[in-house]
Write a structure and sequence with these properties.
The protein is mostly helical and 158 residues long. The chain is 48% helix and 8% strand. It has a domain of 92 residues: Cell wall hydrolase SleB, domain 1 (Arc Repressor Mutant, subunit A). The chain has five helices and three strands, in the order αααααβββ. A three-stranded antiparallel beta sheet has the order 1-3-2, covered by helices on one side. Strand 2 and strand 3 form a beta hairpin. The protein is globular, with a radius of gyration of 18 Å.
Length: 158
């Protein structure tokens, strides 16, 4: 009985710490960039290993920093989303709900997005990639680009 109470109190403490940590992160996200990045990581690579999540985030950052794409994280992610199935990131315009359903994965993606965007020292494991796709699709544009790396089931290009 005492063990159950201690375990429950410990879990409550962990939950409160995580809640307070993410509340502070939400408050510091004045432009919504962390939230946009977290949603993109969640929906594009939530089922991938950590390296896959980081790689997807770097594609967004690389695009933001490239003159061919919009200059904010949110605009990069939502680019082309005015038309169904014409956006840069498929989850954004696929017609499915865009609310995370796995709270553990969502929290991990949010914390990762916050850490990546707040860091001044980033190591781009995609080698500057601006595009990627899952290994089960064959986009027409892939053969015209240089393949840089495969992480999880995503192939990255520049």
């Amino acid at each position: 009985m005492k063990r159950d109470i201690r375990y429950n109190l410990l879990m409550l403490l962990v939950f409160l710490i995580l809640l307070l940590t993410t509340c502070g992160a939400f408050a510091s996200d004045k432009d919504g960039e962390i939230l946009c990045m977290a949603r993109n990581i969640y929906f594009e690579s939530g089922n991938q290993p950590l390296a896959g999540k980081i790689a997807v985030a770097h594609v967004v950052i690389n695009r933001r920093d490239n003159k061919l794409f919009p200059n904010t994280i949110c605009k990069v992610i939502t680019q082309g989303g005015e038309k169904r199935n014409r956006c840069q990131f498929s989850w954004y315009c696929d017609g499915k709900p865009d609310s995370p359903t796995d709270s553990t994965t969502w929290l991990n993606c949010y914390i990762l997005a916050s850490n990546i965007l707040s860091s001044d020292r980033r190591i781009d494991i995609t080698e500057g990639s601006l595009w990627y796709h899952a290994d089960y699709v064959k986009p027409y544009w892939a053969s015209q680009l240089a393949h840089t790396v495969t992480i999880g089931n995503h192939l990255f290009y520049k």
